[in-house]
Design goal:
With 331 residues, this protein is mostly helical. The protein contains twelve helices and four strands. The protein has a domain at 66-153 and 163-304: MetI-like fold (Orthogonal Bundle).
């Protein structure tokens, strides 16, 4: 059958007119809306409060500079005193060593807490219960008395047979006792930080790595730990700063070669406690400021690729602002 004989073809062809062309809109008048005049929102109370706070800070600084009780001449004299600088380095060494051992032991305790073995899990829980539930000052006092508590070292079967009994006549250095006491206390907190970081990673990623044939070590090193570090780093940095200030409690052992103990001894000699407290505070503030800067850059490095405010680039190169949509996939 030809096209002319098909039903509806003739009627369709006879009834259709010429195809409509483009409409000329050049002569249509366009009404332009008036430009909106933006008025800046004023915050009179915010500015007033800011001015009052600045005035109060200036008054405090002027009052402190003129107050004789602070004895600024003694502060300047002992700020860089050899004994003070050596004590500052000892405080820094206490902080670094205690944190290193605390992080290592905390990692072991975190793995024990996540272990399916109930014995390991309960031993780790008991350790955390003791060291998180008692004050660090009390713990340091106990560690200072450890040689009085344990006077002999017994080898044998408890309550059955004793093979050897070795008297403990060696007194460990107070610096070592301070590091051990601070590290054991810190490990209890680091264990919970590490455990929270490992649990923050989606378990599906471990399953995907297993499906790809990756070993447990490769999965932890390449997938789990890099993502968990975003959760672990911020509280760990705070713990380092807290440890720096906690070293002032080693006087409970008693160990007095740290920054606070040394400045306290000097103040007792010259009968000027307030200026020496200011000297110790200046050194603590200096170390804390350096640690805060380092923490910022470490957090920035491990937080790469997680900025939610970055723009989304469209297919044609234009910038598209995503409203309510994350790049991670969840809307």
């Amino acid at each position: 059958m030809s096209d002319a004989q098909r039903p509806g073809s003739a009627s369709a062809g006879s009834g259709s007119g010429p195809a409509p062309g483009p409409i000329d809109t050049s002569n249509i008048p366009i009404e332009r809306a008036e430009a909106i005049k933006a008025v800046r929102l004023r915050h009179p109370w915010r500015n007033t409060v800011a001015v009052i706070l600045i005035i109060l800070v200036l008054l405090f600084i002027l009052d402190a500079a003129q107050r004789q009780a602070f004895q600024w001449d003694i502060v300047g004299k002992y700020l860089f005193d050899t004994r003070v600088t050596q004590a500052a380095m000892i405080t820094l060494a206490l902080t670094v060593l205690s944190m290193v051992f605390g992080i290592v032991l905390g990692l072991i305790l975190a793995v024990m807490r996540l272990s399916p073995n109930p014995v390991l899990k309960w031993i780790a829980w008991a350790f955390l219960w003791v060291f998180r539930g008692t004050p660090v000052y009390v713990q340091l006092v106990f560690w200072g008395l450890v040689t009085l508590i344990y006077k002999t070292f017994i080898i044998g079967i408890p309550f059955v047979h004793t093979w050897a009994e070795i008297p403990i006549s060696w007194t460990p250095p107070l610096f070592l006792i301070a590091v051990v006491g601070l590290a054991l206390n810190e490990s209890a907190y680091m264990a919970e930080i590490v455990r929270a970081g490992l649990l923050s990673v989606d378990p599906g990623q471990e399953e995907a790595c297993t499906a790809l044939g990756m070993s447990w070590g490769q999965t932890m090193r390449r997938v789990v730990i890099p993502q968990a570090m975003r959760v672990i780093i911020p509280p760990t940095g705070n713990e380092v700063i807290s440890m720096l200030k906690t070293t002032s409690l080693v006087v409970a052992i008693p160990y007095t070669m740290d920054l606070f103990g040394r400045t306290r001894d000097i103040s007792a000699t010259i009968f000027a406690p307030i200026p020496l407290l200011i000297v110790a505070s200046v050194w603590y503030l200096f170390f804390t400021s350096v640690l805060m800067v380092g923490q910022y850059f470490v957090e920035k490095r491990f937080a790469r690729g997680t900025d939610r405010s970055r723009p989304v680039v469209g297919a044609a190169g234009e910038t598209v602002v995503g409203v309510g949509i994350e790049i991670g996939g969840k809307g």
